[in-house]
């Protein structure tokens, strides 16, 4: 699409911005100099086995001048036989004099010698068909070339009935080990919006060689934790339950012209803050000079409407230069079709008053709730845009905007923020293709299982209301209600009455037909699924009940407890009837009533869904994927953070950090527990467990992650989100040390304050790090960024924080597989570089928590862990003294290595409650700290 650049007011606005920001006006889209490219080639050859041919004529994917640091970032890819080598990347970062400040490369040595012929056997059309088959998509129909070009430069096909966007195809090489394979890279954006693939198809055989996905999804993490949530969560207290019930917030009576009613930054969700009126004037004029919404007086006439006719009806919608927010619930393939509609976004009316009633108890699809959620999503995306632009995620580095006022970078890529997306549940994702293509944020509905109600009626004392848990397969109860007579199955083979559904047909198949089958969990040791695509025994039992004519299924636990378990698994076994799960305590009560002759009828009602658009931490997390993807490897390369299990994938960690950062409030303390997605999971924000394995905290008693947490051993993390937790943990530690050193600034657009300095450091680090970085690459990029921005003023602090978590000077990152660091071979290390001082890391009150000594938990009960990062030439002695100086606990000698890695655990069960002193004697001196023992 194109934008009319001559509407009234555009020239005046551009001139005003240019005068206000001379540096912005004078900045140029950088053209890499011959000197910079020559320097890259020389350094690449000097530091590796690369030949002159290996570094000759690389592809410059992007190059831009970063006015905040004075650096020019130039990103390159290796080229062999005139073809790009996928993810054989390099970068050269030069200062304003042209001097190389930093450099990296991951080119393949002697590539041309071993490269196969650059002539493909498959045509580009055949490659599209092979890619569709490999990705389990339908065969393309009426495929036509829209843009001709050299195969090395790319050919563009129409959508072929299988892609939401036109299909780009490009001939290139891909590195597999130390060899190159000739491939067609085929881009297919699936119609269900769940994947935006780059599939690399062998150009000779048609097999799938490799693929990556621009969509970064939380599916594996979020859905897993939704399913496990009840097992992990502690029962809520009366006070906590009452706090969760207040989520109704404002009732649509707070509005004012030119404003939105939202949960404001930095509050995470409706359980932490009532909705308030935020004026549109909150848009930062430096970063959103056109305002946030198309009807703003600062926006040029007809702005945005030339492409979508959004204002033709006179409606004022949640659309603007940075984001278009809209309801995408109706169909799983709606996407851009919905964007052109004026019916699926809240209408603020002629006064632009976006105030809508919100009452969680009415359900997410209530019109007021839907409008309120979409408005909140619109506001938070705009705030994220402005805050992140203030820290360096700007137009030239690839941010998301319809129109780039500087004419640097590529526009036409505002965020499409989709509320209550209809393509799934219990999930969220973000698609971040290269600069110039819209990012897409998909927010979903989440189960509210705490409010699920199973009503049982009949002439029995068992009649009443019971809790139940949903399952992740089969039709939802909103589409296929669960109601009818409850019939206990009899399979004729399982013990104690045959109600385990271990065989089919059932003995009482006639009684089950047309009714709700009641089945006990487990009891089938020889159970095999009826289909190789069935994922668990639960699904198989439901399938058997369906085969016996049941209208629905209720499974009860085989253990008479009150626990509820949500069952996972996708609907791949052809299940067409609904199913739920109830506890063993309730199940055996109903079972006894049926066996006693009672006739029971049941009806299940789902609790009102949670709308992910109100979980501002998750919204920030998703937006964060766009930031880290666009900044790492440059805005034209969205393939530098491949989120593959088994690799040191850090994107999830950055996104969690952004979520925590955006929701940090005045008065917070790094030692407190912070969780991800408590609103989506129906939990108190300060109780959790949220959707992560441990809370985020600087307190080792709450989060003791070190680098050794990732790897291939038992109990070590390998999956994408779990690995990301470890990376976010060390970033969160560093964030708080910056706050303790420089203070906290409530103005998130400012340059001062430790929180703002840390966020800028993280964004600058992303620009400087290698493509597909590992944890130690990320650490080194932060150190480089600090040297550029702060003249290395925080280098000792950064080293000490990373060493505390096992990412010190002697840590080993592990092996790289096809350019991506794997978790195999990771070795943690706690040493500091030679000449770097151990320093005391502080808490909110300035009390030393490390460098000197850590003792946790504090208060302690029966066990106390003591740990220090200091070195010692002799074994350390650890003792506990009372306040009179009497030794009450003494340990044997402890090596410095043990004290740095795991510390020593002391038995304090025999000590009386009170305050004690922990003393550690080293060759470097004696360290002490106070602890409290409470029994």
TrEMBL record:
<keyword id="KW-0378">Hydrolase</keyword>
<comment type="similarity">
    <text>Belongs to the peptidase M36 family.</text>
</comment>
<feature type="domain" description="PA">
    <location>
        <begin position="484"/>
        <end position="589"/>
    </location>
</feature>
<dbReference type="InterPro" id="IPR046450">
    <property type="entry name" value="PA_dom_sf"/>
</dbReference>
<dbReference type="InterPro" id="IPR001842">
    <property type="entry name" value="Peptidase_M36"/>
</dbReference>
<dbReference type="InterPro" id="IPR003137">
    <property type="entry name" value="PA_domain"/>
</dbReference>
<dbReference type="InterPro" id="IPR026444">
    <property type="entry name" value="Secre_tail"/>
</dbReference>
<dbReference type="InterPro" id="IPR050371">
    <property type="entry name" value="Fungal_virulence_M36"/>
</dbReference>
<dbReference type="Pfam" id="PF18962">
    <property type="entry name" value="Por_Secre_tail"/>
</dbReference>
<keyword id="KW-0964">Secreted</keyword>
<dbReference type="Pfam" id="PF07504">
    <property type="entry name" value="FTP"/>
</dbReference>
<keyword id="KW-0479">Metal-binding</keyword>
<keyword id="KW-0862">Zinc</keyword>
<feature type="domain" description="Secretion system C-terminal sorting">
    <location>
        <begin position="856"/>
        <end position="933"/>
    </location>
</feature>
<feature type="domain" description="FTP">
    <location>
        <begin position="59"/>
        <end position="107"/>
    </location>
</feature>
<dbReference type="Pfam" id="PF02225">
    <property type="entry name" value="PA"/>
</dbReference>
<dbReference type="Pfam" id="PF02128">
    <property type="entry name" value="Peptidase_M36"/>
</dbReference>
<feature type="signal peptide">
    <location>
        <begin position="1"/>
        <end position="27"/>
    </location>
</feature>
<keyword id="KW-0732">Signal</keyword>
<keyword id="KW-0482">Metalloprotease</keyword>
<dbReference type="InterPro" id="IPR027268">
    <property type="entry name" value="Peptidase_M4/M1_CTD_sf"/>
</dbReference>
<keyword id="KW-0865">Zymogen</keyword>
<dbReference type="InterPro" id="IPR011096">
    <property type="entry name" value="FTP_domain"/>
</dbReference>
<protein>
    <submittedName>
        <fullName>M36 family metallopeptidase</fullName>
    </submittedName>
</protein>
<keyword id="KW-0645">Protease</keyword>
